[in-house]
Amino acid sequence: MSFRAGWLLAGAAALTLGTACEERDRGTQGQTSGQSTVNDQVAQAQNRTEGAFDSARKAQEQASDQQKQAASAQQELQDKQRAYQEAQAKAQSAAQKAQQSQQSAQQQTQQEAQEAQQAQRQQSDALAQQNQQARQQSEQLRQQSQQPVAVAPAPHAQQQGAQAQAGTEQQIVGEVLSANDDELLLSSQGEPQLRLQVSPQTQVMVDGRQASAGEIQEGSQVRASYRTDEQSGEPQAVRIEATSQVQPMAPAAPESGQSTPGSRQPSQ
User: Fold this and answer.
1) Residue 7 and residue 1: Cα distance in Å, rounded?
2) Which long-range contacts (CB under 8 A, 24 or more apart) does 9-18 make?
3) Which secondary structure element, helix H or strand E, spans residue 190, and what is its range?
4) Can you tell me the distance from the alpha carbon of 64 to that of 54, in angstroms, rounded to the nearest whole number?
5) How wide is the angle at C-alpha 27 spanned by C-alphas 25 and 29, nearest 5°?
6) Please, which residues bridge with residue 173 across strands?
7) What's the confidence (pLDDT) of residue 69?
8) Residue 51: partners with Cβ closer than 8 Å, 6 or more residues away
9) Which residues have C-beta within 8 Å of that of residue 246, sequence separation ≥ 6?
10) Could you report the average pLDDT of every consecutive run of 10 residues in the chain (268 residues)?
11) Of 254, 255, 264, 257, the residue nearest 112 (C-alpha)
C-alpha cells in the first residue's frame, strides 16, 4: 500500500509537474506570440510613417516646383505687361508725331496756297498795268500820227541849219525802216529818211517797257525826241517810244500748280 501510495504520489507529482510545464510552455508560447504581434504592428506603423514622410516630402517638392512655376509665370506676366506698356507708349508717341507732322503740312500747304494766290494777284495786276500802258502808248502814237509833224530836213539842209538847231529838242513820228543798238532809220509819210544816232543815254521804250534800240522791229511806229549834235551835226536820239505793229498777247495762264516768270493767273 505504501509503495502504491508512493507511486501514486510520484505519478501525481509528475502529472502536476507536467501540467505545470505544459502551462509554462503555453505561457511562453503565448508571450512569444504576443511579442511577435507587437513587433509586426510596430513595423507596420513604422512603414506607414515612412510612407507618410515620403508622401509629405514628395508633396513638398511638388509644392516647391509649383511655387517656382508660379513665380516664373508671374515674372513673365510682368515682363509682358512692361513690354505692352512700352509698345503702347511708343504707339502714342508715333501718333502724336504723325499728328504734328500732318498739322505742319496743312499749315505749310495753306501758307503756300496764300502765297500763290498773292503772287497770282500781283502778276495779274502787273499784266493789266502793262496792257493798259501799251494801249495808252498806242493811243498816244495814233493821235500824234494824225497831227502835223515837223519833217526832218534833208541832209544838206541839216548841215546848213546845224548851228541854229543845235541843242534844240525836236520830235518826229514815223515808221522804222531799220534799227540796231547804235542807230535808228525812220521814214515819215514818204518824206526823206531820218537817221537817229542812239547812245547809252537814249531812253528806249518798246510797247511801254524799257528796252534797247536793237529790239525795235521793222515797221514799228515810233515817236522820237532828238537833238542835233553841235560837233558832228548828227541827230542824237534823246527818247524813243516804239509800238509794235502786232501787240503782244497776254501770256497763257499756267496750269494748276505751275507758274511762269513774269506772268500771273488772276486769283480765283
Assistant:
1) 10
2) none
3) none
4) 15
5) 65
6) 223
7) 92
8) none
9) none
10) 59 66 66 76 86 86 89 92 92 90 89 89 84 74 54 43 59 90 85 86 92 90 91 90 68 48 43
11) 257
